[in-house]
Design brief:
The protein is an all-alpha fold. It is built from 15 helices and no strands. The chain has helices at residues 11-14, 21-32, 46-49, 53-66, 68-151, 163-178, 193-219, 241-261, 276-302, 307-330, 352-359, 364-386, 388-396, 398-412, 427-449. It holds the Pfam family COG5_N.
């Protein structure tokens, strides 16, 4: 309700939290007028409705004048309390400032110095690791260079024994250059000029020399004593046990070297690793034997007086292949430093199995005779198409050629007598299979003669 005192201000209503000017004015008008009067008579003095800020200011001034002493005393008390709080705060802020400055001196500066020491130590460790890697690369490079010089020596001086150590030294250098196994130890080696010179002038030429010598040793593998002039693969007649062992030793070292130097992924395992350099060298050996045998046999069939000599050379080549198969079956893969550790439960693989899988054949002699027979029929047909004395002589000596070819396959399918090899190509198994291969060879020659 509106206050009934002389003041126009209803302080209780004006100070209420839910005060509304429109509601207050409406209440004031209804309290001083009858809303049912017609016409409406607004008898409320205009000053009661249109009160202004001056009335409020007057009211405030009256109140403050009446209570001036208490207000001044309260204000003075609050000012003294605020001053006391401010003094305490300034004291605490000063203490905090001094503590921060001391902490900055004792910790911040020392931390900066410690950070510089840490950075210097880290760089020294990296430099030490890099120097150690460079030193190891130089040691391996010097070792590789000496071993390759021994490998490059002529046969008979024991140079083949240095092939595998040279391959391991080369793999060690590959690992350093690629930083596959030492983490940050090899970091930055590519920016060291000495390492670049080592790689270009020692490592790369040594790798080419080592590969060339290993591939040459495989190409020159010969253990047959049937003929001493049967092309490049029978240049050396093997006649003694010592010569046989030397040939086996050279070949084994070359095979191990080609296996180790074949490209390998670090995540590969010995079970999934494919020694491409080894397989390519062995396949080239077989292809050379096939090419030489096909060319010489085609010439001999056109000039029969040379047939016996040619068949003897072909039998010698196949004996070398039989001996190679036995050697491969008895030679197991060495430990490869770039491959994962082998599965101890997995069967140990030899060098023969991946080659047989690659050639898709059950044995190397069978592959040799069947590949030779597949290409021979067309050569015989060419001789018959040309006609003349060669064709007539070949037809008239059909039986002699048949027996000579069967004897050639029989001889070629045997292990060399002095080889001392055993394994997947032992003589008993070879004797059981040669009749089938002989029939294939005879059919490729005699078959076209009967048409």
């Amino acid at each position: 309700m509106i206050s009934t005192d002389q003041s126009y201000l209803d302080t209780t209503t004006l100070l209420a939290p839910d005060f509304s000017p429109t509601s207050y004015a409406n209440t004031l008008i209804h309290a001083t007028n009858n809303a049912s009067d017609t016409p409406l008579d607004l008898s409320t003095p205009l000053s009661r409705v249109l009160f202004d800020v001056q009335e409020v200011d007057t009211r405030i001034d009256a109140l403050t004048t009446k209570n001036a002493d208490s207000i001044v005393a309260h204000t003075q008390t609050q000012a003294q309390a605020s001053g006391h709080v401010l003094e305490e705060l300034e004291t605490q802020v000063g203490s905090l400032r001094e503590s921060y400055e001391r902490l900055e001196r004792e910790v911040g500066e020392r931390w900066e110095q410690a950070e510089q020491v840490r950075l210097a130590a880290e760089r020294m460790v990296k430099t030490l690791r890099l120097g150690r890697s460079v030193q190891r690369a130089l040691v391996l490079g010097r070792q590789l260079q000496g071993l390759v010089e021994e490998v490059s020596a002529p046969h008979g001086r024991g140079g083949e024994k240095s092939m595998v150590p040279a391959a391991h030294a080369l793999l060690g250098l590959r690992e350093l250059f690629a930083a596959t196994g030492k983490g940050e130890e090899a970091e930055g080696m590519g920016r060291v000029q000495l390492v670049t010179t080592l790689r270009n002038e020692v490592v790369n030429p040594s790798e080419r020399t080592l590969l060339s010598r290993a591939q040459q040793t495989v190409r020159e593998f010969s253990m047959s004593s049937l003929a001493s002039g049967a092309g490049s693969q029978t240049n050396t007649t093997v006649g003694t046990y010592k010569e046989t062992e030397d040939t086996k030793s050279r070949a084994t070292h070359a095979l191990h070297t080609l296996y180790l130097l074949s490209p390998a992924k670090p995540s590969a395992s010995p079970e999934t690793f494919t020694p491409t350099l080894l397989i390519n060298a062995l396949q080239t050996y077989l292809q050379t034997a096939l090419t030489s045998s096909l060319a010489s046999l085609a010439r001999a069939l056109a000039t029969l007086p040379t047939l016996d000599r040619t068949l003897l050379e072909i039998a010698a080549r196949c004996q070398n292949i039989v001996a190679l198969e036995a050697l491969l079956s008895a030679t197991h893969a060495p430990a490869h430093p770039l491959l994962a550790s082998p599965d101890p439960t997995a069967p140990t693989s030899n060098f023969l199995d991946p080659l047989l899988r690659h050639l898709d054949t059950s044995s190397l002699p069978s592959y040799f005779w069947r590949s030779l027979a597949n290409q021979l029929s067309s050569r015989v047909q060419e001789i018959l198409n040309r006609g003349g004395v060669s064709a007539r002589t070949l037809r008239s000596n059909r039986d002699k050629v048949r027996e000579a070819v069967r004897e050639c396959v029989d001889r070629g399918s045997r292990l060399p007598q002095v080889s001392g090899l055993r394994g997947g190509s032992e003589e008993g198994r070879t004797r059981r299979n040669w009749e089938r291969e002989a029939a294939v060879m005879v059919g490729s020659i005699v078959g076209p003669l009967g048409r």
